[in-house]
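Appendix B, record 7
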Amino acid sequence: MWMPIAASWIHSSRKSCGLSGSLSVDTGHADVSYINLSAFLFSMEQEKALAVFEGKNIRRIWHNEEWWFSIFDIIEILTGSSDPKQYIKKMRQRDLALDSNWGTICTPLELTALDGKKREVNCVNTEGAFRIIQSIPSPKAEPFKLWLAKVGYERVQEIENPELAQKRMKEIYKQKGYSDEWIEKRVRGIAIRDELTDEWKKRDVKTEKEYAILTSEISKATFGMTPSEYKEFKGLKKENLRDHMDDLELIFNMLGEASTTKIARGKDAQGFPENKDAAKKGGKIAGDARRNLEIESGSNVVTPENYLDEPESQKRKRLKDSSNIRKKEK
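Structure tokens (predicted):
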């Protein structure tokens, strides 16, 4: 009886935290809808998209506000089978109740294969994983159950206390080589983005495509480029655009989105057309400020610089050291 109870506990714990609906993660690209800090944290962890059980990797993806795990990876780890697909076929033949509910338990989701290509793979959430484990006679099943429960509980903790998610996000950025100064701006930018997309949701902006268009309008008016054009300008491919912005780029990005929120509220913008107008005006405020700064400073805010080869904190230190040397020479 332990397994169904544990699965039920995780399911009810998520409900008690007020989890409902779906959300998309803000990546700074044109295909974003809305975010929260905890969801963004998990999107960062998904750069490797792996969970580790006893030193072995299990592919996972954040979908419908919960983790979904590759069934093939779970079977391979718990059974040692060299042919998980064949093992699953025999398992379903043995367990007719599991077989009859297979379409309900499993969801095909895109995961990265060993060759680096994305393919649809059958995945299960925590509750589904518990059900499948019931059909696997393996001494590893019990520790795996405990591991799954822990993964679910950590997520519940972060939902109940968003500061935990923010703290973990800062730690991850620090490990990636970002400075404290940059991290504070990035975190503030996420909060501003979150506030804006929440406002769009309240104001009847409905589809992901509409969110993408509004984001693109702000970017064009602020920087003179859409997010996809901006990524190309910086030599980025799958990387998060905002993770490769410097301090000033982040500041003007925040100004454009914060201005859009204020204008939408002030004009009580409703629906996509009115919010598109607010997005253009909010972006223009940031764009005008950027151009004025560029005129007065004699240097561009928008640059092709990125942090692909040199971590932000190292680049910051190098630029600071160079500036100090020039001052001494004068």
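Remarks on this record: The beta strands are 50-53, 56-63, 66-70, 107-112, 118-124. Residues 178-329 form one domain.
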